[in-house]
């Protein structure tokens, strides 16, 4: 049982150790350069030297690393650090910030990076004579300074310095591709929350976790240092890295083993990504002629190209997508020197012009031929066979460099010419596009329609158009509505532009007369008709003349009818009403005219039980009678009373309704 456990622990330790790189400080500087970094006979190396930290433990800040079995991008190579390389292997669980007394910086690095405070410099330098006209090698920059907002502020520095022997001016090869910007923590990183925006993020690889193969907080992607050289000329290269400002937070350069190659310059990559592909009508010749070369062989994506064994390779249209890839020229100088020179080519296809005439309806209420248009409604159909990744933009002129925004307004009414251009490929001419703005100039009025209870109503859209579609799902110019609500209908004119008409259907009904308020005890008679119901009403007391107010004045008649009419035609409600009339005099002379004094219509007004009391001028009660009585004949105890003014009250059991007077004439 003990043996089995020991075996399990042994295998577990082997697995864990395989996750991290290892370092070796036993290689000499010459071995690191000749056998690890270059590892070929294509460059004659001499004057190799190295310098770094003089640690009392005897450890170095430079040496060999092996990453076999890990996720690190390089299998092996040369490691230069601002601290002990023994601290470089993972896991990334502590901060490496080694230093030693007297470990200074490097003046050439200061000059290359325009700084003056480097320290803890590690330098590997040597002379070499190339056979080809271009050198290159791959590297990764890693640093403990990739952490938090420090990423935005601090960075150690490094440089790959190249010069011809006998000259004094160095060229720095450790630059962000196609720029003069040195590779540093502060120049290569993603956006840092609360810190700074991204800088050249496409060259940043990752922030490392605890199980990283190396003990550094972050690293770049694989970068390539490259320079043109003169075959047979002696050069000096100086690879240097140093802390900047203080020794805290170490950094390192990982140089890929066998990546220091000498080849020929076939030119820059011509790719869609670089926006410089080979044009569909272009003839391209790659020329890898090299002094002292004994044989050539071209490869395509790593495979030999039959019959292509000269220094040149020519491409002629027409091209297809199967030709996109990496072309390699293998140049043999001697049995011990074979160089590989790569170039990646993408070939632009012939694109077909698709749609160039576009019509859109004016999208706003002002139908003036000026409208907002979305570029996404145009650009996808201009070309019919556009390769993936090609981007198209619209421009207001063939020479404009600024594409129109995602939405734009034409500035020439009704029709204007624009130009479609492929943004990330300069091989194609601008394509003129005609943009026509169609209008719907007719004025369409919304309507409010009454819906009388239990009586369906017909909604009729504006006539003379086509493709009527209602919000109910029905089609045709008319529908029948049985419920109140909002109904919309869209339709098109001859240009295919649409409009929407809205019908607001309001439920309505005949009114209910709740009360008729009569004021006929004053000097002027007035009546107010109180009605309720779902609708808009108007009022009349003769059935002919209607008014919006329910109040009527100056009524001289005794009997009327109240009319309440629904303005939307949903019925008329009627109710008769009566006014009382108090005579100002009476003439009881037996001629049958005005012989009796009484208040007219009391019974019709519901006042038959009211009591009328008559007084003489001295307040003496002459008589009393009810509202249903025939009235007073001008006598008192069967005696004729003299002509005079008399007073009266009209009372109910609760109150006196009115006091007044009248004249008896004889």
TrEMBL record:
The protein's matches in Pfam families, at most eight in alphabetical order, are given as:
CHU_C (PF13585)
**How far does the signal peptide extend, from start to end residue?**
1-18
Which keywords, in A-to-Z order, does the entry hold?
Signal
Q: Which InterPro entries match?
A: Choice_anch_L (IPR049804), Ig-like_fold (IPR013783), T9SS_type_B (IPR026341)
Which named protein is this? Answer: Choice-of-anchor L domain-containing protein
- Origin species, per record, is Flavobacterium sedimenticola
Task: Cite the source lineage.
Answer: Bacteria, Pseudomonadati, Bacteroidota, Flavobacteriia, Flavobacteriales
């Amino acid at each position: 049982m003990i043996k089995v456990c020991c075996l399990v622990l042994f295998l577990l330790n082997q697995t864990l150790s395989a996750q991290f790189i290892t370092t070796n400080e036993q290689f000499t500087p010459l071995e690191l350069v000749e056998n690890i970094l270059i590892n070929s006979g294509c460059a004659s190396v001499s004057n190799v030297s190295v310098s770094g930290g003089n640690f009392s433990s005897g450890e170095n800040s430079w040496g060999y690393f092996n990453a076999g079995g890990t996720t690190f991008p390089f299998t092996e190579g040369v490691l230069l650090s601002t601290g002990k390389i023994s601290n470089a292997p993972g896991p990334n669980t502590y901060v490496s910030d080694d230093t030693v007394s007297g470990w200074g910086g490097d003046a050439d690095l200061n000059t290359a990076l325009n700084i003056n405070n480097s320290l803890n410099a590690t330098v590997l330098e040597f002379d070499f004579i190339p056979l080809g006209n271009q050198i290159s090698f791959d590297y990764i920059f890693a640093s403990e300074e990739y952490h938090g907002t420090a990423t935005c502020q601090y960075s150690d520095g490094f440089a790959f310095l190249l010069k011809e022997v006998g000259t004094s001016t160095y060229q720095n090869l450790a630059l962000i591709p196609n720029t003069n910007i040195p590779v540093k923590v502060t120049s290569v990183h993603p956006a840092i929350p609360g810190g700074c925006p991204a800088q050249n993020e496409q060259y940043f690889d990752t922030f490392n976790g605890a199980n990283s193969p190396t003990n550094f907080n972050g690293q770049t992607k694989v970068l390539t240092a490259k320079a043109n050289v003169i075959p047979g000329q002696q050069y000096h290269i100086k690879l240097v890295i140093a802390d900047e400002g203080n020794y805290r937070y170490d950094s390192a350069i990982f140089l890929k083993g066998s990546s220091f190659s000498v080849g020929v310059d076939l030119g820059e990559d011509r790719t869609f990504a670089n926006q410089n592909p080979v044009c569909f009508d272009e003839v391209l010749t790659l020329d890898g002629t090299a002094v002292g070369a004994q044989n050539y062989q071209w490869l395509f994506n790593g495979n030999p190209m039959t019959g292509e064994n000269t220094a040149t390779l020519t491409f002629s249209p027409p091209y297809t997508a199967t030709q996109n890839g990496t072309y390699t020229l293998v140049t043999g100088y001697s049995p011990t020197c074979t160089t590989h020179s790569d170039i990646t080519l993408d070939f632009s296809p012939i694109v077909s012009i698709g749609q160039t005439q576009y019509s859109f309806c004016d999208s706003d209420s002002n139908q003036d031929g000026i409208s907002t248009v979305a570029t996404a409604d145009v650009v996808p159909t201009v070309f019919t066979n556009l390769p993936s990744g090609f981007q198209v933009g619209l421009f207001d002129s063939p020479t404009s460099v600024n594409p129109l925004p995602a939405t734009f307004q034409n500035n020439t009414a009704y029709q204007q010419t624009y130009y479609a251009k492929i943004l990330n490929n300069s091989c194609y001419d601008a394509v003129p596009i005609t943009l026509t703005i169609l209008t719907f100039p007719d004025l369409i009025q919304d309507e409010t329609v009454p819906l009388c209870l239990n009586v369906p109503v017909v909604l009729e859209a504006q006539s003379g158009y086509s493709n009527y579609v209602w919000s109910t799902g029905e089609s045709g110019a008319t529908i029948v509505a049985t419920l109140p609500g909002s109904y919309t209908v869209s339709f098109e004119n001859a240009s295919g532009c649409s409009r929407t008409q809205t019908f607001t259907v309001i439920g309505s009904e005949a009114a209910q007369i709740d009360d008729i308020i009569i004021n006929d005890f004053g000097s002027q008679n007035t009546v107010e008709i109180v009605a309720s119901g779902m609708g808009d009403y108007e009022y009349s007391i003769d059935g002919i003349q209607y008014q919006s107010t329910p109040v009527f004045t100056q009524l001289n008649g005794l009997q009327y009818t109240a009319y309440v009419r629904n303005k939307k035609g949903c019925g008329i409600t009627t109710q008769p009403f009566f006014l009382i009339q108090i005579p100002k005099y009476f003439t009881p002379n037996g001629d049958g005219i005005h012989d009796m004094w009484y208040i007219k219509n009391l019974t019709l007004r519901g006042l038959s039980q009211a009591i009328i009391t008559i007084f003489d001028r001295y307040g003496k009660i002459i008589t009393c009678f009810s509202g249903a009585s025939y009235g007073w004949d001008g006598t008192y105890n069967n005696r004729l009373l003299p002509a005079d003014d008399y007073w009266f009250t009209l009372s109910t059991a609760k109150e006196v309704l009115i006091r007044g007077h009248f004249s008896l004439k004889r």
